[in-house]
Structure formats: structure tokens, C-alpha cells
Predict the structure.
Amino acid sequence: MVRKKVVLLVLMAVIAAAPLLASGRAESAAPAGDASALERTVNDPRLFQPGKLTVGTGDPVYPPWMLNNDPAGGEGFENGLIYALAEEMGFSPEDVVWVGQTFDQAIAPGPKPYDFAIQQISVTEERSRIVTFSQVYFQPDKAVVALPGSAVEGARSYADLRRARWGATIGTTDLDYLEGIIGVQNVAVYDDQVGTFQALQGGLIDATVVALPTALFATAVQIPEARITALLPADPNDRGHGLLFQKDNPLVEWVDEALSTVIARGVVDDLVGQYLVGDASIPEINR
């Protein structure tokens, strides 16, 4: 008799709890709907940290990309672009969080501790297999780097440039550019960019050609005695720089739309003029 009473009490408890269990299931399902409603807002649950825009970059950072080794300072081409992008997406400046990392960490496959990274990262087919990129926001020109008094000073045409002794790093688009676009023959080839710059410093070559951002950094830090003597058209084999995301990150479409708006407003052009051309008197050679 006691056993029957216990069983009956249990059954009554289960029946009484059924509406609560159903309600609990409804409550647990509700956040999914709420989460969808929050997409493309500052509280988007797909963000690395909802309420914040978390951005990866170098550690340290260098001018002209970011000044004073301070991403949060907002002075520089890359952090200037990010703060304009953040505003377009609805974030205030204080809601932008910077995460320092090496370049190799940025382009490696796997989880990322940020929403996307900006670090002068060129979009390539090989990298696109393991990470996802935004649209290209900056296509760098090429630049001639030489020491004062070099044979390339005063050059105004590709024919003038071909008279100089050139060096470049093996396997780079810089070497391809010299041979295929400028038409230079007998380019001296070095194992790495440090070797190329050392050859320039040692007088073994008259000049080298690199992407303009590289040239700006090189003449500011690596070989400050050198100068940018001419600007050249962008390399058609270099797609340009893009924001880097973890592979198949669902935020890409939202960020890309905001980036398109920022570009259309002329923000990138203004930042290029402010930070990426140090001297408007540098001649441009395009033939």
C-alpha cells in the first residue's frame, strides 16, 4: 500500500512539473531568436566579445601604419581606418579593443582571438585557403629606394630606370616587377630583403623596388640613409591589403558592407594622402 502511494505521488509530481519543463524549454529556445535580432549591432553575439570590436594588429606597430606604437591613439593609416570602420558599424572609440600579435600568428590557420586583423596583410590565393579576407581596401604602389647620388635619381621613365644596377629578393613580386614591367635585365638576386638592403648600403646595387608601404618603413627605420626617389604603378600581381578573419567567420559580410561605405566616403583616400605619401614632390614614373 505504501509503495502504491509513493508511485502515485511521483506521477502527480511529474504531471505537475510538465508545464514548468515545457516553459523551461521555451525559455532556453528564446535566446536564439534574441541572438538573431542582435546581429549587425554592437551586441552581435557573433563578435569575439559582444559589445566590443576586437581587432588584431602587430606588436609593436610602426609608422606610418600606426604612430607612437599606440593603436588606440588613432593616429596612422591603419588605426585611422579601423576607427572610421568601427563608427560605421556603431561602435564608439572606447569599444575598440586591440590585440597584439606577430604577422605569422595572423596568417596562420585556426581560431583567432579577435574579430579580424589589420597588419598590412596582402590578399593571396594561398592565404585564402586557410583564412578569410575582406575586400581589398588598399592597393599599394611600388617605390624606388636608393641612396642619395644614385644613378636612379632624376629618372623619369622606365628607360632611365633600366640604366641602373638593380637588386631584389628572390621569389618576390618585386623581382617579377623589375623584370616583367620595368624590363630590367640582370637583376642581382638576394635571399631576403635584409640582404637586398645590405647590398644597397654596400654599393653593390644602385636601387631596389618594393611596395610603397615597405619603402616608407625601410627608409624610416631599416635604412634611414636611403630615400624614395620615384613612385611606380601598383603591381598587377598584388591584389592589395585586406582585413583578415578566421576562416569562414560569419562577420565578414557585415564588416565588408561597412568597409564599402567607408571607402565610398573617401576615408581611405584621405588616409593615404595623410600618411602613405610622405613627400608630394616624389616623381611618378608610369611608362
